[in-house]
Design goal:
The protein has about 290 residues and is an alpha+beta fold. It has 8 helices and 12 strands. The strands form 3 sheets. It has a 7-stranded mixed sheet with strand order 1-5-6-10-9-8-7, with helices on both faces. It has a 3-stranded antiparallel sheet with strand order 2-4-3. Helix 2 runs parallel beside helix 3. Bound molecules: adenosine-5'-triphosphate and magnesium ion (MG).
Length: about 290
């Protein structure tokens, strides 16, 4: 054990915290950050090379954005999902970002509910929507008076939560919520999985797993996970909350986080790179 003391000492030469932080921000592969070096000089030279390479790749990416793509991943994904769902017969809706407190109560998020702590409240008792479901429930009922069955609607837009800041949570993120109303109940389970597959593939992801969980709001749910991270929660009704919204038919609903989908597809270790930001543009750190 002690015969390899020399090697073990060398093993202790790692990137400094500042160096590792810098490379992480620039998008280095997390495995590279764990490397050991033979000497401090070696390490510093490797750090400089990696920093230069990542900065060059970032500038190239921004060059392509300016010359060719002209819209960031988040917008491209939104357009792609929109096209897919419209082709699948869904109708897009756009609803208010500001909702009433009673809408959350009708979602079962009343006083004492954990999600309540995460809501951005405005002075007048209204709030920035933490989810799209209340608005979509309302439109399902109103359109349901006018449209034949089954029919589907979807919204893609910002949601807001005071989620404890971690590598997978943003205070403002982009939700896709699609719902379909009035299909035969025995078809709901298969339809849910079919729609999950359509959206995940449209987002450019190949591999995913389906996990069965229990949500604070909806009870039994399906979570779609990529690399162990949740990208979607989905549920099928009838559900006890439906009565609050005047819904009496079977439905399926899926809520995806677009930044989570991008994070999973691009292999980003941090969701900040995929979201609304003044520090990153299209996943590229700007201080390069
Ligand atoms: P988590 O357990 O990861 O915090 P959740 O179960 O609270 O997520 P849902 O209410 O199921 O989230 O919302 C549907 C989807 O919206 C999630 O699967 C995720 O992709 C996305 N999402 C939720 N909260 C955030 C957030 N703070 N930042 C980014 N995406 C989020
Ligand atoms: Mg969830």
């Amino acid at each position: 054990m002690t015969t390899i003391t020399g090697a073990r000492m060398n093993d202790d030469i790692r990137l400094t915290l500042t160096q590792a932080q810098r490379l992480r921000e620039l998008g280095a592969d997390p495995i590279e950050l764990e490397r050991a070096f033979h000497s401090v000089a070696d390490r510093d030279a490797a750090f400089k090379r990696a920093e230069d390479d990542l900065a060059r790749a970032g500038r190239q990416h921004l060059g392509e954005l300016r010359e060719r793509r002209r819209a960031p991943q988040l917008v491209e994904l939104e357009l792609e999902l929109r096209r897919t769902l419209i082709d699948a017969g869904f109708v897009q809706v756009v609803t208010p970002l500001i909702i009433g407190g009673e809408a959350l109560e009708k979602m079962g998020v009343g006083h004492g509910h954990p999600l309540r702590q995460q809501v951005f409240w405005l002075d007048d008792g209204r709030c920035l929507r933490p989810m799209l479901a209340p608005n979509l429930y309302t439109l399902l009922r109103r359109l349901g008076r006018l449209w034949s069955r089954p029919f589907g609607i979807f919204e893609i837009g910002p949601c807001f939560r005071r989620d404890s800041k971690g590598s997978r949570h943003l205070n403002e993120f982009t939700m896709l919520n699609l719902v379909e109303l009035g299909l035969p109940q025995e078809q709901c389970g298969a339809r849910l999985e079919e729609l999950a597959d359509v959206v995940v593939k449209s987002a450019g992801l190949r591999e995913y797993t389906i996990a069965r969980t229990v949500s604070e709001v909806y009870g039994p749910m399906l979570d779609i996970e990529v690399g162990g991270a949740e990208v979607c929660s989905a549920a099928a009704g009838p559900h006890p909350l439906d009565g609050n919204w005047g819904i009496v038919e079977p439905w399926v609903g899926l809520g995806f986080g677009l930044e989570r989908l991008i994070m999973a597809r691009e292999g980003y270790p941090n969701i900040e790179r995929a979201g609304r930001s003044l520090t990153y543009v299209d996943g590229v750190r700007l201080n390069i």
